[in-house]
Amino acid sequence: MQLVCFAQDAQNTQSQRFLPGPIETPSEQKELKKETKKWGKKQKEDVAEIEIVSDYMDYFPEEDKLIATGNAYVVPEDKLSKLKADKITFYRDTNELVAEGNVKLLKNGATICGSFMRIDLNKNTAFMENPNTQFQRIKVVAKEGYAYSNDIELVKGSAKIPDDLRLILSTNSMYTGFETADRKAFTALSKNPEYLAKSKNKAFKIKTKEIVVDSGKERNIVTMKNATIYKNKLKVATIPNLVLSGDKNFSEMDTTLPEFGYVRQLGLFAGPSWLTTGPCSSTVKLSPLFVAEGGKAGIGGLARIKNDRNHTEMFYGTATETFIVQGAHEFSDPRFKFNYGSNAFVDDWFMGRKMPNKFSEIEFKDSVNIEDLGLIYKYKYSAALASDYEVGNSQDVRMNSNLAKNNLPEHKDGWSTSRFKAQGEFMKEKPLWKKGDDIYLTASVQYDMNQYGTGDNLSVVRAGPTFTYTPVDSKFRFMGSYFMSGVYGKSPFTWDQYYFGKQSLNGSYEYKLTKKLSIGYANTVNLLKDNFDKRLLAGNRFYFKYGPEDFKFCFAYDTVYQRTSIGLNMLVGSEQTDIDFNKMKIKEYKKLKKQQDTKNADIRKKNLKQQKKEEQKV
User: Fold this and answer.
1) What are the residues whose beta carbons fall under 8 Å from the beta carbon of 164, sequence distance 6 or more?
2) Is 612 part of any domain?
3) Are residues 456 and 508 in the same domain?
4) How many domains does the structure of the chain reveal?
5) Same domain membership, residue 386 and residue 489
6) pTM of this structure
7) Which pairing describes strands 336-342 and 322-330: parallel, antiparallel, or unpaired?
8) What residues make up the domain containing 615?
9) pLDDT by residue (tens digit) across 216-248?
10) Do residues 453 and 429 lie in contact, with contact meaning Cβ atoms separated by under 8 Å?
11) pLDDT tens across 435-472, in order?
């Protein structure tokens, strides 16, 4: 390490080369020059260089240290950072810098302030006491801070969400058909000046184990691991990974609400719940349950485990002696997923929710824009191993009617085979017709092809229009679609039949009765009643939503599936929203700085272009 020092005369601000030690006589000055040469020679193998600039400097040979005071700052050779402080001390023996009083570290566009900092020049690391900074519009204060080559780490601190940042949190179980519209309504509400004025008095607090700030290719991403939401000291929700980014303000959460409802496999159930943290940045919800079904009462339990890649639910009740497992694991490539379940409904995309006896599946799902045709093509490939129920003994009540028994394959309980599936959907990139962003008509073509280990196959091709009417300020909302289908073949599984027939009509309707209460209805109608049980309704769900404009509770019941679903949507964020964290990592500062510079340049170009247009008009 070669040291270059400068001093500024209080009367003349022009920097000049300064040699360590007090300047008294030419002879003493000569001796100091010799010392400087030795210093440079000793560190010749390390070509790195730092500059220390200040109004005053004192060198103490006995301690081999230099103290800079008065507008003191240090700049490394790469010029990527700058350290300012009231007092900066350089220790030659240990090759360390110590900054004290009004310390500021400027690193690639960010400024971190503190009371004390120690820098190890050998390891290129730094330690700071009581650091505070502002990043991604979030103000941060911490007890300790550590700076490395590209990253910064803050320990035991708090961050404050600015007044223009709002988070939409959902339990992701509100199967109303209007999930996207609900998020749009919350987003519009978060920009409403009247709501913003009222929300200033709402105190939310978020506690998280770790915050990671990372630079993506197109946007910066802030991830809070094991985040817990508090409202006026009341713990209301937990999120395994709460993600904030430039185009995402929605996250799935788990709540401390009691568990209650009805599922045919389990019966009527109710019980309190506890939320805690688990391994791999996961949240764990545990609920002891009281269960009742068919005149029998008993006990049971629920366990729900979530993290950024895995979601697993387990139920058990003594009334039916049934064990239910449902889950999905996402791989490092998010296009790949492993689905699994037992006595539980599995999601089969546009083919609906189905209930095998046992089920395991690897899927690959992706999408591509076909620009020449103006189409969006979504597709999915999967390979599964599944087992079936004996006819009449299914946990899915649709399979147990007399008509169903006459039209479904017969085999023993637990019988299993493989299934290979290809699904796809072609949809127009632009609506066929639209009025604003919330009223539009689209059309799509879907296919579903299945090959089974028994040699059987089932193929479905269907097409039709979809109409959406979801204005934010309207009391009534509607979504409807009509499909004509071509069906070939038959599945060997009772649970894997095509329920919707050759002509089907899907509808979701919602009406706002009061400011706080909305009622809704969603169904799927088999117009020709040509499915295996000749049923008119393939889905029949009633629900209501209740709560203030930024907090909605939903309860739904489906008469066909015989199951309840309970959901919660919540808008979080105000000037009083604090985030307490154990650790905060800010990664790739150099990339973040470059992104910010590019963004600022784009804004300047846009402003200049607008200014020229206005001048031309004049």
Assistant:
1) 137
2) yes
3) yes
4) 3
5) yes
6) 0.69
7) antiparallel
8) 589-618
9) 544 556 788 888 888 777 787 788 777 765 445
10) no
11) 988 999 999 999 999 999 999 999 999 999 999 999 98
